[in-house]
Write a structure and sequence with these properties.
The chain is mainly alpha-helical. Helices cover about 80% and strands about 0% of the residues. It has 14 helices and no strands. Helix 1 crosses helix 13, helix 3 runs parallel beside helix 7 and helix 7 packs antiparallel against helix 10.
C-alpha cells in the first residue's frame, strides 16, 4: 500500500507534468495530436541561447563552490563550537531569506557601483550568494550536528592533519549534505532573474533572462521546449558534479579498498 501511495505521488508530481511538457513541445500550439518541432526550432533559433546557457553554468558553478566553502565553514562553527553571540549570528545568517530580496539587492547595488562590480559576472555571482548561503549553512550545520565533534577529536588525537580529517572523514560523511547543496544552490542561482538583471545590468545574460520573457508567449510548444531546456540544466550539472566527486581522493581510496578485498 505504501509503495502504491509513493508511486502515485511521484507520478502525479514529477512524471505527469514532465510528460505534458514533452508532449506540448513536440505538438503544434493548441493541439495534442498534430506533431510539430516548431517549439524546438524556435528554441535553438534564439541568438543568445548557447551564450546564456554557458554563462548560467559558469556562474552556477562558482556560486555552488562558494556555498560549499562558506556553508561548511559556518555550519561547522555553528554546530560544533561555542562562542559569544552564536545565537545572534545564527539569526543574522537567516536574514537574507527573511527580508525581501529586492530590498537587499538595491542596497547592495549601490555598494557594487562604488567598487565597480556592477555589469560583471563577479557581481552576479556575489548577489546570488544572498538567497543561497542561508540554506547551505543550515544544511551543513545539520550535517555536522549529525556527524558530531567526537569523531573529529579522535582523528586529531591520532595525529591526523586538518586536511586529512577533511578528506577522509568530513567529506565522505557529509556527502548527502554536499549533494543537497549542489542541487539546491544551482537551481536557485539558475532561476534568479530580477537580481541578475539589476546587478548584471543586461551585460551578463543568463538563461533566466532569455527564458522568462517567453512565459507570456502564446506559443505553448516554444514555452514547453524552453521549460524542458531550463529543467535539464540542473540535472546535467548534478551529474557532472557527481562524476567529479568520484575523482576525489577519498573516493579513489574507497575503490582501491574494494579492489583489494575482491582480489
Amino acid at each position: 500500500m505504501k509503495k502504491i501511495v509513493f508511486w502515485t505521488i511521484v507520478l502525479s508530481t514529477v512524471f505527469f507534468p514532465v510528460g505534458l511538457l514533452i508532449l506540448q513541445s513536440v505538438t503544434a500550439p493548441g493541439s495534442w495530436t498534430e506533431l510539430s518541432v516548431k517549439g524546438w526550432t524556435g528554441l535553438f533559433g534564439q541568438r543568445r541561447l548557447v551564450e546564456a546557457t554557458l554563462t548560467s553554468i559558469v556562474i552556477g558553478a562558482f556560486v555552488v563552490l562558494l556555498n560549499i566553502v562558506i556553508g561548511m565553514s559556518a555550519g561547522k562553527a555553528l554546530a560544533l563550537y561555542r562562542f559569544r553571540g552564536k545565537d545572534l549570528l545564527d539569526t543574522l545568517l537567516l536574514l537574507p531569506i527573511l527580508l525581501p530580496l529586492l530590498a537587499i539587492t538595491f542596497g547592495v547595488h549601490v555598494a557594487m557601483i562604488r567598487i565597480g562590480l556592477t555589469d560583471t559576472a563577479a557581481g552576479v555571482i556575489l548577489i546570488h550568494l544572498v538567497p543561497t548561503i542561508p540554506y547551505s549553512i543550515k544544511i551543513f550545520r545539520n550535517g555536522y550536528v549529525s556527524l558530531g565533534g567526537k569523531i573529529l577529536e579522535q582523528a586529531e588525537m591520532l595525529g591526523a592533519t586538518p586536511w586529512r580529517t577533511l578528506v577522509d572523514i568530513e567529506l565522505p560523511l557529509l556527502r548527502a549534505a554536499i549533494q543537497s547543496v549542489l542541487f539546491l544552490t544551482f537551481v536557485i542561482s539558475l532561476s534568479q532573474y530580477v537580481i541578475t538583471a539589476i546587478i548584471g545590468g543586461g551585460t551578463v545574460v543568463t538563461l533566466a533572462m532569455v527564458y522568462f520573457p517567453f512565459l507570456e508567449s502564446a506559443d505553448t510548444s516554444l514555452v514547453a521546449a524552453f521549460s524542458l531546456w531550463f529543467a535539464l540544466l540542473p540535472l546535467l550539472f548534478y551529474l557532472i558534479a557527481e562524476g567529479l566527486m568520484r575523482l576525489l581522493p577519498y573516493q579513489r581510496k574507497k575503490r582501491r579498498r574494494r579492489h583489494d578485498l575482491f582480489y
